[in-house]
Task: inverse folding
């Protein structure tokens, strides 16, 4: 009943997870990769810019110190030539001057006048170095100059030349030294101050741009703020996104494929089973049950075999649980029963004394219709209920008085009731006593242990004793050797089955085996 | 330069004054228990230039300032900020490692010599260490000429007020004299003596009194009074 709905739910859930999980993972990976890659690039760029800026400042200081230390005759031709050569050898230097107090006596370069004497210094260091960061007060022409004075010499630096636009890859960049903006490209742009920004990369959605701040601490604290439009940022990483996205899609497809394959297999197996039951492709096979002492065949356990039209055999270990899960248990049991009854009609007279053990599923006992259908079929074929023993697993016994009632009814009709696979499930002695039973089948694992002397071998004796106490007949399952048979005979176990006698046989095979035995 | 004067060069100066001081200490043995600075001043500074013999009043300082801002060494108002920045940088470079207190103000720099560093107790004679420091300061002031230098002496309140007054004047004069000897024009120099009238710390503790015994050099920027000239056109 609930099975198709469950399947549908499972399909939807698996589908949703199948898409959402890899897609989320994909997005996360792409974003991480992109941000990491961009931060690496920006760090490299920032370090380069910082190095250039720092080099210019350190070089300026060193040159001023060098000029102060030389005993020039102030403003002599030699002095002026030196200043000029030093200025010419540095692209970013606009002027070098010689000063006494606040008077510029001479110098090299094109900048002169008040622009070189701004009213307030940005920094005065204990070393005696004074610096004026670029500002309106230091603007000569269109350029806000960076000024540095040490002793009697000063230098004017064009900060635009500290940034090579070619290395920016379209980004807008500002370099801050000691918390003050030193250089920017393009110069006119206004940049957010670094102390307002988090370290690293972040997406400024309001302005549709990607902003980053990288701090480089070398001789001076230098910070680089880079701004790029989101489109540029996206353009750069489109290829990466496509590549990672491709891998992600493959993963998603793979995952969905797996889910689909599993589900379709389950669903198709279920519908195939339904068709196999309806089409009579579930055949009854027989494992002989032998009276141990005499070796006489007294019956057989009836088992289902599913052979598809193309010859593929599907194991009962797969289709029996599947049938129960799909609510097909009773139909499976009845289908095997019908097959059995057909076979029985064809078998020779002596065989008609034998008892056939039919396995019931839990659903058989749970449905009121089963018992009736069973009776109808037996009547139809003229088979006495005494010839059909019903095997019930321990698990089925657990349930309620209703089940107990049905088992009692079946037994009253003449069926003998066997408890199957005893010792492996829910061996509750209380239930054993509550149900009216005829036969106890000892599970193969206990019989196996007779050879290996494993711990469980000590369990088989109490089982035998229990069966005796409850007045139950015993059938040992899975006998595979003469020694096992011998041991069981010595303990008066009545019957047994197993490869030692015969595997499960088809209709004709069973007939042949039986006739051979009877001879 | 001047700041490169070595300890060896100053040694004879020190010993010259050490011997008479010891002699006097020996002669006035009964006075040994009293603080030695109660001794009368050992020397008076040579009186070469009139302006250093005059103890200036507030009015004198104003008059001199008024005269100098008209002079050629005063700076234009636009250059005042720049001058003070580069002046401060120069003072920092040359004097920040000496341990004397330097107070950088908007239009002036106040340098405070503690007396225990600058003078023998009760004496107006500069120690060699003080002399070296003043040499270094003089080198700066020779370049930064747009400054008026007001040297004022101060004492604590222990002892005779007249004595303290005289001692403060003589110590101020010694410093000013040394600056003049190092090439600073007497026109830029003014001396004042305040005795114990202007304490900067509590006279009841020894550390407070030590802080009050001092010579201050107020280096005042001389800014030209007249309206600024139009900015000279920039050469292209």
Result:
């Amino acid at each position: 009943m609930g099975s198709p709905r469950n399947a549908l739910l499972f399909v939807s859930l698996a589908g949703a997870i199948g898409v959402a999980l890899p897609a989320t993972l994909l997005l996360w990976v792409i974003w991480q990769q992109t941000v990491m890659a961009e931060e690496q690039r920006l760090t490299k760029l920032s370090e380069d810019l910082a190095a250039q800026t720092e080099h210019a400042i350190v070089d300026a200081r060193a040159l001023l110190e060098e000029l102060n230390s030389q005993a020039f005759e102030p403003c002599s031709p030699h002095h002026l030539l030196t200043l000029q050569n030093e200025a010419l050898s540095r692209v970013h230097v606009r002027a070098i001057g010689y000063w006494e107090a606040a008077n510029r006596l001479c110098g090299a370069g094109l900048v002169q006048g008040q622009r070189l004497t701004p009213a307030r210094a940005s920094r005065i260091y204990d070393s005696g170095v004074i610096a004026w960061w670029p500002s309106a007060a230091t603007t000569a022409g269109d350029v806000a100059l960076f000024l540095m004075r040490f002793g009697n010499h000063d230098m004017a630096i064009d900060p635009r030349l500290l940034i090579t636009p070619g290395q920016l890859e379209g980004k807008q960049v500002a370099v801050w030294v000691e918390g003050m903006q030193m250089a920017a490209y393009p110069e006119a742009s206004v940049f957010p101050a670094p102390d307002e920004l988090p370290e690293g990369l972040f997406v400024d959605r309001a302005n549709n741009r990607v902003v980053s701040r990288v701090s480089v601490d070398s001789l001076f604290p230098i910070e680089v703020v880079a701004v790029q439009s989101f489109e540029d940022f996206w353009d750069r990483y489109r290829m990466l996104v496509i590549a990672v996205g491709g891998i992600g899609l493959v993963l998603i497809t793979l995952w969905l494929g797996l889910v689909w394959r599993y589900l379709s297999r389950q669903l198709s197996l279920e519908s195939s089973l339904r068709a196999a039951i309806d089409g009579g492709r579930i055949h009854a096979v027989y494992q002989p049950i032998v009276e141990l002492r005499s070796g006489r065949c007294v019956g057989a356990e009836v088992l289902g075999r599913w052979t598809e039209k193309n010859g593929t055999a599907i194991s009962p270990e797969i289709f029996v649980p599947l049938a129960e899960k799909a609510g097909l248990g009773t139909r499976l049991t009845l289908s095997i029963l019908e097959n059995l009854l057909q076979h029985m009609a064809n078998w020779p007279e002596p065989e008609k004394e034998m008892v056939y053990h039919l396995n019931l599923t839990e659903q058989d006992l749970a449905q009121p219709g089963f018992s009736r259908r069973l009776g109808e079929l037996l009547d139809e074929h003229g088979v006495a209920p005494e010839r059909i023993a019903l095997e019930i697993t321990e698990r089925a016994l657990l349930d309620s008085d209703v089940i107990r009632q049905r088992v009692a009814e079946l037994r009253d009709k003449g069926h003998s009731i066997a408890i199957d696979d005893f010792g492996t499930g829910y061996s509750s002695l209380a239930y054993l006593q509550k149900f009216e039973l005829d036969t106890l089948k000892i599970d193969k694992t206990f019989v196996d242990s007779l050879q290996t002397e494993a711990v469980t071998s000590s369990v088989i004796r109490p089982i035998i004793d229990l069966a005796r106490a409850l007045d139950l007949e015993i059938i040992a399952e899975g006998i595979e050797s003469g020694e096992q048979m011998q041991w069981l005979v010595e303990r008066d176990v009545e019957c047994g089955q197993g490869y030692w006698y015969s595997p499960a046989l088809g209709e004709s095979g069973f007939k042949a085996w039986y006739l051979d035995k009877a001879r | 330069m001047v700041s490169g004067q070595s300890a060896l060069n100053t040694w004879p100066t020190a010993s010259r004054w050490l011997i008479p001081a010891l002699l006097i200490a020996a002669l006035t043995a009964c006075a040994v228990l009293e603080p030695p600075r109660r001794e009368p001043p050992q020397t008076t500074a040579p009186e070469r230039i009139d302006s250093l013999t005059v103890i200036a009043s507030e009015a004198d300082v104003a008059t001199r300032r008024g005269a100098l801002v008209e002079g050629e060494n005063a700076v234009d108002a636009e250059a005042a900020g720049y001058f003070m920045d580069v002046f401060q940088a120069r003072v920092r470079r040359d004097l920040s490692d000496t341990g004397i207190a330097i107070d950088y103000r908007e239009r002036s720099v106040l340098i405070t010599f503690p007396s225990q560093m600058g003078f023998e107790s009760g004496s107006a004679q500069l120690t060699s260490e003080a002399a070296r420091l003043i040499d270094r300061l003089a080198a700066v002031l020779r370049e930064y000429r747009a400054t008026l230098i007001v040297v004022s002496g101060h004492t604590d309140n222990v002892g005779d007020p007249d004595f303290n007054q005289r001692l403060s004047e003589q110590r101020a004069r010694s410093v000013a004299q040394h600056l003049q000897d190092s090439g600073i024009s007497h026109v830029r120099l003014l001396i004042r003596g305040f005795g114990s009238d202007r304490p900067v710390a509590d006279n009841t503790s020894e550390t407070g009194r030590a802080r009050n015994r001092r010579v201050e050099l107020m280096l005042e920027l001389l800014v030209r009074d007249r309206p600024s000239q139009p900015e000279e056109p920039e050469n292209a």
